[in-house]
Amino acid sequence: MTETATERATRQLENAAGYVDVDETVVRRLKHPQRTHRMTMPFERDDGTVEMVEAYRVQHDDVRGPYKGGLRYSPHVTRDEATGLGMWMTFKCAVADVPFGGAKGGVKIDPRELSDEEHERLTRRLTKSLRRYIGTNFDIPAPDMGTNARTMSWIMDTYSVYEDETVRGIVTGKSPDVGGIHGREEAPGVGVSVVTQRALEYYGNDVEDVTVAVQGYGSVGANAARHLDDAGANVVAVSDAEGGVYDPDGLPTHEIPSYNENPGAVTRYDAPVVTNGELLTLDVDVLIPAAVGGVITADNADRVQADIVVEGANGPTTSEGDGILNERGVPVIPDILANAGGVTASYFEWLRGRNRRKWPLEKVIRELEEEMNASWQDAVEEYGRLDGASWRDACYAVALRRLGKAYEERGLWP
């Protein structure tokens, strides 16, 4: 039976609980979302036909601050997926030590089949349905798969119309022209690159001597690849939803359009083509799965040749795949640390929305790198303390300690 996102997140929580002295009630509490909202909405197509579409918003935990997490448009959106992703967001925010809790949600629809006008109508209708459940001090959505800065700007505008005032802080990841910050779109990928470089240093590697393969050349993967390329790494393989390319001499990452910039452009680049599955098993120093969840499994983990795996996507490694890599001694730097750059930059944007102060690009990148380096150091110290733990266990232990202390200070009401 296929492992669900919620089952995987719960198993990871239980593993970490074995290393941390935390009240069992807190662990039981974190296994369940605090709120789950399911909506069925009418949606008008350009031809005038009306469809009923499902949407979810799962608010997992807010003990450390307002709920925070993306909204995705995907045909694979389910309640279980949103629950698992919301749990991961709770732990990601705790590892990054930003004052947010975890949430996730989305609409069950294929964004590739939406015109720009349909995307806007759907987004404004979703905002109307979500309006009672979100707020600048309660739940702050952000972009995710199938959504972008324009989507967030539409949410902000629709919400502001209902409130009769401009509410910049209702979402993050919006355009800088309406209160967003420069660098937010690049932040998840930059964070992955920073953590990758720290991991290479930890294992005694020079970034200029390593080869890197990136599955998922979208917002996260492309920016991670380009940032690593700029740092001197040799990015030899990249892929998007249509497939990938591989050149052992290296690829010009800045010349290859990302999936967001030009869907399918990766395979049109003049280099030998590889499938997404083949990319995962290339002989490289670093593998960055930055596409979708559940791609490293029991079926292929024994064929992964990378020396280090850095998770750019949410939940790209199944529990069985994780176990095989651990047994083989392949370090896996988990998603809740590696791709925390997005929520860290979202925190900067949220602050800007509250105090109206400018955040220049240089400041965003500088402070993002500082925060990611600090989170890495916290993980290193925990990893050194825990005998026999994986990097995933260590990162979850960091998060669980912080969540446990927050619950201890605030208390658990009967």
Automatic annotation (TrEMBL):
User: Listed GO molecular functions?
Assistant: glutamate dehydrogenase (NAD+) activity
What residues does the Glutamate/phenylalanine/leucine/valine/L-tryptophan dehydrogenase C-terminal domain cover?
181-411
Active-site residues per Swiss-Prot or TrEMBL entry: K104
Q: Which UniProt keywords apply?
A: Oxidoreductase
- UniProt superkingdom: Archaea
Tell me which SMART domains the record gives.
ELFV_dehydrog
Single GO BP term: L-glutamate catabolic process
Task: From the Swiss-Prot or TrEMBL record, give the protein name.
Answer: Glutamate dehydrogenase
Organism, by scientific name, is Halorutilus salinus
Lineage per the UniProt record: Archaea, Methanobacteriati, Methanobacteriota, Stenosarchaea group, Halobacteria
